[in-house]
Design goal:
The protein is of the alpha/beta class and 409 residues long. It has two domains: 20-209, Rossmann fold, CATH 3.40.50.720; 244-398, NAD(P)-binding Rossmann-like Domain (Rossmann fold). 40% of the residues lie in helices and 12% in strands. The chain has an eight-stranded mixed sheet, sandwiched between helices. Strands 10-9-11-12 form a four-stranded parallel sheet, with helices on both faces. α1 crosses α3 (70-80). It is globular.
Amino acid sequence: MIEPIPNPKSEKPQVQCPFNVAVIGGAGHVGLPFGLVLCDFGHRVTLVDTNAAQLERICQGNMPFEERGADSLLPCCLESGRLHCATGMNVLSDQEIVIVTIGTPVDEYLDPSLRAFDQVLEQIFNHCRPGQLLIVRSTVFPGVTERLGRIVKERGLDIDVSYCPERIAQGLALEELTHLPQLVSGCTTQALERATEFFADLGLETIPLSTVEAELGKLYTNSYRYINFAISNQFYMLAQRYDADFDRIYRAITHNYKRMNGFAKAGFAGGPCLLKDTMQLASFNHNLLTLGQTAMEVNEGLPGFLVERLKQHHDLTTATVGILGMAFKGNCDDPRSSLSYKLRKVLTLDCRRVICTDPFVHNPDFVSVETMLTEADILILGACHDEYRELQTDKPLIDVFGFLPGKQP
């Protein structure tokens, strides 16, 4: 059994040996918070991204997305003179450490799509210099890191390749990056040692694994959550078929009963990671992750189930249905892979009109909460934004999450 290395520091230190660090994908939801944390610890950080408009906004001290604490940290990093932005890979020759945080999506067949990842790595290899440490933080299919190690060796590139996956919750990255244990691995003993020293110097607990163990560890983390949500969503559907209140059942069976501590609330399981990573784990594994495939069918089928239940009680052809929240989760401005959009699409086929609102996601077609409460005949909660918590209405309200007061139609 591998024992975690204890955290040697109780307070945030400044690193004793600052490095020049490039964060590839540095304007994104993973790369930007990590770059800010590294800069705050004393490293000299260059955010590298092809999104020039996003980088320009960052250079002006404005966060391009919601991230708790980042609005105040970003200007401090810029004022320190340690934070820089670049759109080209030519800056890599000046770096000691290169960190890859780009997204790795699945294709239309729900298989890992590595083409963009490979293209970025090819550019990195063309601009790298001897002695660099390459840390991959992106979610990758098992075996990808060892493949990178073989490519580096075949080309005679004198760089160390490490895989250290991120495990942050979007919106809480700055806090979690300074507290969560870090899974570290390397294609060589030297790469593992260098990656371990890098994260330990931030005062973080590090847990050494082989590269494939670290890759699986990241995929397991998100797949476990996705499957857990599917269990709850399946139970929610079963309760609905019996005209039972799932939220009352949930509260009853979890109250002072520790064996149910891991029982998730029901609700939309969307976002850019959970489904994607579950499908990456399922791909090319000879149907060994049948739980993942089933979870996808349950979670992705929830919007359609809600509409079918509504049709049993309401004539939707004459109704206006309002969706409260279009982000993929509460208090977030990221609409990527949000099931609220799938719900809107399904509703559009059956309803007279569908209207949407969200305090974080800006869309000229969205209406205000006040307009929605006036014009909608039926309300459905799509995201658990705090702004909705005290919402009062006598309209029929569907709240799968058990977040709002209201009567289930």
